[in-house]
What we know:
Layout: E1 18-20, E2 23-25, E3 30-34, E4 37-38, H1 47-62, H2 69-83, E5 98-102, E6 119-124, H3 132-135, E7 144-147, E8 160-166, H4 175-183, E9 186-197, H5 202-215, H6 220-240, E10 243-246, E11 258-261, H7 262-269, H8 280-292, H9 302-311, E12 314-321, E13 325-332
Parallel strand pairs: 5-6, 5-8, 6-7, 8-9
Antiparallel strand pairs: 1-2, 2-3, 3-4, 9-13, 10-11, 12-13
Helix pairs in contact: 6-7, 6-8
Amino acid sequence: MEKRIVPWTDPFTGEELIHEKNYLVGKSSKYPLKDGIPNFVVSTNDQIQKQVQESFGEKWTQSDFGQNDIEFEKKIKPIYLEMMGLEENDLNIFNDKIILEVGIGSGSSSRLWSPQAKEFHGVDISKAVYRVPLNLKNLAINPILSQADINKLPYLDESFDVIVSNGVFHHTPETKLALRNSLKKLKVGGFCIFYIYKKKAPIREFSDDYVRNQISNLSYDDAWEKMKSFTDFGKSLSNQKIEIFIPSDISALGIKKGKYDLQRFIYDYIFKCFWNDSWGYDYSNLVNIDWYHPKYCWRHTEEEIRSWCHNLDLTVNYIKELESGYACFVIKNSSII
């Protein structure tokens, strides 16, 4: 394997691993390589985490979302920039940095920062990571990839200048723990940019948990079919362009007064029924299943996130509230034990 800046280390013992034939090998460990990508999560005892792993594995391997250059630039890139709290001209902050993306999926978000990296690493717990080389084929030079758990990353502490994570920490057993274990791999003075789901209005929170309890117990293919009724509903309401007026705040339910498109009102306050004409049917259905199929799907408040930053000795550059989550930019001030 080519010499690089940040080497592989055993995620359990911390010892450096060497390449022998189709494996990465340590004194007491051996991890298989597939297409040059090591797998550090051959098995897991957490059945809920396994379900999440399989859900995102199917999502990113069954869909070409974010992999078409023109489509990405026109439709998806603006959404990703907003989710990370960035503008196009902010991307130079990644220039010549050693970058780790945790929860890389099939690499669609990576198109924002991998081309500028001095060395780019990406990990994902799912099989989707094996699609990343195809997605980044003309963008990133020699991306270094692994199938790995965020909480057991195959690197020494304080190895990276930058860590990025687009909507992943909340899909783990504990959001704060996933953030903490990722930040261990960040150098003191380095920065981390991430997106985390926010708590919604009370009825929406109840409905989401109720629906997720049903959808997440289905196979991915069955869940895909089940979610079509939600997508059909969102599309129908969007096409009807019905406007409603709420005369005063309904504070007990988190509903604010004002005019609403009915589809957007139900989406914000009742249940997720995403529809986007420019994205089309399959991508809209993908957004809905992405929300309801993974069993781990925590939502948080800005106060929670700020308390984590305080406890982990992070300087908050920004926490920007968006429609469904928070875009966060933090700087690491000291080592994390």
